[in-house]
Amino acid sequence: MSMGFVFEGGRVVDPAAGVDDVRDVVVAGGLIAGPEAAEGAERIDARGLVIAPGLVDLHTHLREPGDEHKETVATGTRAAAVGGYTAVAAMANTQPVADNAAVIQAVRELAAAAGLCEVHPVGAITKGLQGEQLAEMGEMVEAGVRVFSDDGHPVPTARLLRNALLYVKAFGGEVVLAEHAEDASLVEGGHMHEGVLSAALGVAGRPAEAEEIVVARDLALARATGGRIHLCHLSSARSVELVRRAKSEGVRVTAEVTPHHLTFTDEDLHTYEANLKVNPPLRSAEDRDALRAGLADGTIDAIATDHAPHAIEEKEAEFDRAPPGTIGLETALGAILTELVHPGRLPLSRALEALSTVPARILGAGDHGGPIEPGRPANLVVFDPDHAWVVEPPFASKGRNTAFLGRPLRGRVTHTVFRGALVVAEGKPTR
Amino acid sequence: MNEHLLSMHDLSATDVTRILDTAESFREVGTRVIKKVPALRGRTVVNFFLENSTRTRISFELAAKRLSADVINFSAGGSSVAKGESLKDTALTLQAMGADAIVIRHSSSGSPLQLTRWVDAHVLNAGDGTHEHPTQGLLDLYTMREKLGRIEGLRVGIVGDVLHSRVARSLSFGLVKMGAEVTLVGPPTLIPPDVSAWGVQVSYDIDGVLPKLDVCYVLRVQRERQRLEYFPSVREYARLFGITRDRVALMPEGGLIMHPGPMNRGVEIDSDVADLPRSVIEEQVTNGIAVRMALLFLLLGGGKGETA
Fold it and tell me: Which CATH superfamily includes the segment(s) A51-363?
């Protein structure tokens, strides 16, 4: 067993244990250790730094297999580690689609080989993401899948989603169906939020009601079946209100929001900036503010990146031809600190709860999300909350398509500890 | 004036007046036996048309040629673009060939703005998607000023498929900038959902609007919109919003009928209306050449030392 290392004098913020205190954290043998193990361990000065449970992303596109020109499991998990993540959920829209245990297993093996971050493959709800026939979810559950999603699109018909919600009840109550809530008929051909700016720019819109309609449908089905729905990347104020009410009525629903929806509005697209073209689209300032409020009061459970890498030439195409999406793993923490925590809109402990503890619980990633206590697996992020930097390449991700390009952020990861190993030190990957 | 012409928003009211005044002086060139001046001799203008267009391309070509520029026509069909070359790579190629001005027509909104990030040449937007068509807007302003003596205070109705019309956007923005009163008229499905920032009125009642108009500007309505559920049938569209002879009779005397072309006779405009003396559709085409000459001249700095 190695001698391990100790972070000395850091501020430990551990939402799972309700801790916010200056103390040393000792890591030895892959686990958090007691103070007795500090003797002889490597000492790392953590004064002025925050130590928290490693971040957990519910929504990552690693692109492999099939789109290795955009990202691979190796580059995507490296980006995750640099961003302070110790576990990510890899979306199913690969080629071939992750709609069977073989693809799930292949992604897991690629992740294990990279050794930078735990990868939880998300399984497709329908075969080939075609929205017609249920995928063999039982086989995938046996292979360890906990979250299923046809991300990119909602399950197209209420009947199919209802059956999916009922079907997975056979596998225990923890299986979650994650929905990309946008009504296909209302967003067809659309590329940005429908509003004043889309009308002036001559860009077909993706109206807010496209999301609200699917959110309302999904909540009704979750209520009727008792199944668990997770709503991906909420973008509209009324969606937040629908979720708030459903939760008060006991519907089993969780929701996530992305750093970019918490930061930008459709006004930022006035120069047809393709890096800000995302689905669902960036909406009005009122919508963004409602998302911030929903995150603060717990209506929105988690912050997820929707890390969506694309090749440069794909994003440099004409605005209506550029694929939607932004990378996000390397900027999420800095963006949340800059936009929400430093200005006093969100307590640091709630931010870390939404970035780590809650998503770990939804994902069933039991080794992650804290508490930071002796005997627990050592999955940690350490960051300097005041480090000022500007978002610019190079990135660990293959993608350079970041909505935050050129933006000054305050707060950056210094160390990431994954299964007791320093995979990032001094802000740089160690392997 | 800016280095490029991408949108009506790039121009101040003073710029618009200067462009129209310059066009006035070029208008006469088109009436000469030898329709040519040496203003842009040695300069290269590329017509970069990635969407089919006949009238706009020919108009720009004539405008550049009458200024003695070298003109290259580059269209999508059979070009490197058809072989899958990206907009950026094609733009860099045009740049490397020494284009002084690139006139771009593209089906994607915003593509002229993108082009300016990659090339040093002056970029002129000849219509981008459903965004803008500023040279059309300017030639329409020119035609109104020529026929009615002013733009300020004119009451202009823009009728039809405003939602998908780049002409409607450029013209509305230009008219409002110059102090005219604009009313957009059409079925609610074809009016953009939020025009609160445009400074215009909206009406769904063409018969109520026509008696108050100095100009009835009729937009092309594509039959395809029917398939996409914007209105039930061409017949019903024509009944509710088509500009017929009876409807023209509601307009004040001397009011103009305008259309950017190409017309769908029998849909948005009746044949006998298009051919009335008060419809100035052919004059719009003629004026288009003079306005585009003025724009090329002003953007390329042809005014330095040489005159028309």
Answer: Metal-dependent hydrolases (3.20.20.140)
